[in-house]
Amino acid sequence: MTFEEIMNYARKQQCSDIHITVGTALAVRRYGVLTILDPTPTAEESKQMIFSILSEDQINYVNSGKDLDVGVMLPDGLRIRANVYHQRNNLAASIRILQQNIPTFEKLGLPAAIRQMAETPRGLVLVTGPTGSGKSTTLASVVNYINMNSARHIMTIEDPIEYVYPHNKAMIHQREVGRDVESFSLALRSALREDPDVILVGEMRDYETISAAITAAETGHLVLSTLHTTSAAQTVERIIDASPLEAQEQIRAQFANVIRGVFTQQLLPLKDGSGRILASEVMLATPAITNLIRESKTIQIPSMLQQSRAQGMSTMNDALADLVRRDLVSIIEAKKVSPDAQSLVKAIHGNF
């Protein structure tokens, strides 16, 4: 079995991920469900599958015992994101298949508020959610929307580069951490001297990156980034908690000043088994929301989102209840990702 064969299978089955482990079976993830495949390739076949997507330098790097994140353009133009790692003294790889064409807001099923976030001239916009929830694709759709509609200079800082954007109305420069620049925080500081209008930060992993991103937003740039959080309130707390104690009050005030929106998303399997559908929570930075952030009253954010539906905001439970009522998603699947399953049940019917 070759890498090309497993890729062809995964694409025909509309899989999102492929797992290759030397010495054991292959696996694919389709619509969020992991499936083990037969037959099991030999150890040499598995190793060659992994090595076939790496350069000689990258092969030497992983053979030295290190893990590797890499974005790869395949000969047919398809891009993949791969993490090559070691387990039980053998190599393994997790491969994410990226969509060839960057989908529009409409195709992704994104609410109107995402366009409002994309059109804001400055500040901080965060797309959040668990691993595999489509954050990178949503951000790519935002960047592509700006690219198609606005003459702006966009800088992306990614680890690794996933989607490649052709120049349209915007000019886009993409920097890869570990190849073009040492770290997210250093790239952000450098970006301020490179005349950007929009800066995409692949992930805000640490205080240095968070602080640099907030500074960039304060100085008149639109900063787009992601966090692995599952609600707007949790996102605010994660930003504050990632900061040293002595800096938390300052970060809280700065964050309240620069935040423009938090878009939290989950992907749920459709009831008919034909794919997955998006459920989202939307927080927009109204004066009421920013006051809650400044006053450390993030526990009140969910209630404020419910009260602000007319302004385009919504809670995750609002979105989940709507999907269940429309018979698109089962109550069981909705409960799995709900921040408050009891409240979800009441929102759906009142007697589940």
Describe it.
- This protein is α/β, with parallel strands linked by helices and 352 residues long.
- It has helices at residues 3-12, 43-51, 56-63, 105-108, 113-119, 135-149, 184-191, 207-218, 232-241, 248-258, 287-294, 301-307, 316-325, 331-337, 341-348; strands at 17-21, 27-30, 33-36, 68-73, 79-87, 90-97, 123-128, 153-158, 171-176, 198-201, 222-227, 259-269, 276-284.
- α5 (113-119) crosses α6 and α7 runs parallel beside α8 (207-218).
- A hairpin with a 5-residue loop joins β1 (17-21) and β2.
- A seven-stranded mixed sheet has the order 9-8-10-11-7-12-13, sandwiched between helices. It has a six-stranded antiparallel sheet with strand order 3-2-1-6-5-4.
- It folds into two domains: 3-97, Beta-Lactamase (2-Layer Sandwich); 105-314, P-loop containing nucleotide triphosphate hydrolases (Rossmann fold, 3-Layer(aba) Sandwich).
- It is built from 15 helices and 13 strands.
- 38% of the residues lie in helices and 24% in strands.
